[in-house]
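# nightly structure sweep
# worker-07 picked up a monomer target from the shared queue
# config: single-sequence mode, recycle default, output format = structure tokens
# input follows
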Amino acid sequence: MLSNFYKKKLEELLINCRKNLPSNKIKEEVISKAFKFALEAHRNDKRASGEPYFSHPYEVALIIAREIPLDDISVSAALLHDVVEDTKFTIKDLREEFGNEIAEIVDGATKIEGIFDNYELKQIESYKKLLLSMTSDIRVMLVKFADRLHNLRTLEFLTETKKMRLAQETIDIYAPFAHRFGLSNVKTELEDLSFKYLNKIEYEEIAKKLKEKKREREKLVKKFIEPIKERLTKENYKFEIYGRAKSIYSIHKKLMTRAKSIDDIFDLFAVRVILDTEHKNDCFSVYGICSEIYIPVPERFKDYISLPKQNGYQSIHTTLVSKEGKMVEVQIRTRDMHEIAEKGVAAHWKYKENTNIDDKNLEYWMQWIRDTFENTAKDDETSKQLIESFKLNLYQDEIYCFTPKGELKILPSGATPLDFAFEIHTEVGMRCIGAKVNGKIVNLDSKLRSGNQIEIITSKNPKPKKDWEKFVVTQKARTDIKKYFNIEKKKFVTVGKEQYEKKLKKHKLHINEDTLLKIVQRLKFKDLNNFYYEAGKDEHRLEEVIDILSDKNKIQQLESSVDKILQIPINETETFTKFITDARAAEIDISLGKGGELEKMKGFKYEYAKCCNPIPGDDVIGFITFNEGLKIHRRTCKNILNLYLQEPNRIIEINWGDTAKGEFTGGIKIIGEDRPGLIKDITSVISKNFSVNIRSMNIYSKDAMFEGTMILVVENLKQLNAIIEKIKSQPGVLNATRFEE
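# output follows
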């Protein structure tokens, strides 16, 4: 039996379901059963705040019922979403009690938990599970939005480390996903709550400014909307009009992009006009009325009604100049458009008899996810690019382009005619040799703009170019191009291997794979596949190898030809320790304070933080510890960010003094393909372009690859970075970075 307290809680949930869910999608007995099951399952569990754990799944279900209203299945799954992870019950138990549909949503939501700890390769399989489970039933992700939203609303009870981790992954992943699903309110709250913990100082500064200007803003809004209100009433429109302050996080982004203070930004609020009409054209008529009352800014007019965003968002956006000369953003939409703008896919759900979302753009996006995973090679680099592509695709600005017949294609900002070609069809992309934009021939790497009409010029004999991968931006184009070259490479590898085996038989040679691998690596082939590929493309390369394999003296010469300087493996820890010691050995003063307030640190006990190993020339900051004096960190150090957020009063400004010669020690780590003359080329490019002293250089070669370190005396970090860029440009150098431990 439920206590009176929980009876009231269940009734509150059911009232919200009756109010917000479609009447044909409420089975109260299912929700009541899930409520009682979850309450019993979590009976002995507590939250970090000390309250009963059941309060969390209950609040998540309430968010689904109030803010993302779907159906009884979603509400029930929200109540049960932590049962499998935190109690003795299994998915099998839920399947027997509630059926397959609820069990699958709970299973998908359980798999998602914790997979965003980082985006590295070890997480790619979990990331795939998330995306693929979402594409089979998007209610998985919607339950997770509600779960994350409630967690952020109660974040103050967690440790600082967990707060920061949850806030960071929310702003990186959950908020962009909410944006893609059209959940405007959810996205905004997720961003603001995350920002509050990631940058508490700036959050509070913006919040304070907004509060200070609230009366002034309300007065301005009231004065601005009054003439519009009068005119719309006179024209017999049924409407709602109001002003709203923009979210704190969106204001922060404006401040970052415009490099202005909050006092200099006018459009901190927007006026919204919501029309009770089913006629889209009424929105344009109202825009005309507003433009008669106030002067519009033409370049800031956006028609998302005729051309909706990919997440289904529709509205007219315009900026009008008030009588006081202030620029005010105005959004005009119908009531149905407003509901879709606020609740996204949940609003679509509301009007459908079945559980499928009737949203072509969303279905297209989810189909793209499925196709991408099916067509993507399983190599590490592709996996990294795949994750980055998904993160970009979630939040990328959109442009609207047309075929010569007027068919609309929505592409990410920065897309090229080649992206457009692949968007039409893979074969069109493969056969593309040129393009016309608005009737004029352009380069295939030209950036497209909204409104462009693109005609793709094709050839009967398709032959994609390798450099296409460098400038296309859509995942479809990248995947199709990479797939083509992977197939081409496999063909040449097969041909090369067959030709090699024929040559061996012809010359009556018996060479095992280990011996062959050693030989081809000495000849600067990366591996056997690389050798077979080159042999398949160019038979002369194969003849060179067969010539060597036929001559024992040549094999011996090749095996002993490695430069002696490349034979000693690097002890990186010892090298780094010596580098840091040498860098700090110069007579350099450290001062406290900024600008003219510098004070020499005589008598101060200080140490260099081992987490980031600052050296003279780095931009540094200090943290006053209780037992170890002052710890000096690089300003970019992740640990100092956490310390700054926790105890800002113990942060102190630090400055390096000038050395006698204005020099400091810099280290560079280099990785690349081993080749003759490598060391000479690297040292030559440094001496030719920079007047610096190379103190030491240690290079180690193995399996046709090399890695090494170079220690130099440089003037400043700017010069060190310039040297790194020059080294990177050398043939065979795969990467050059500042030497880190």
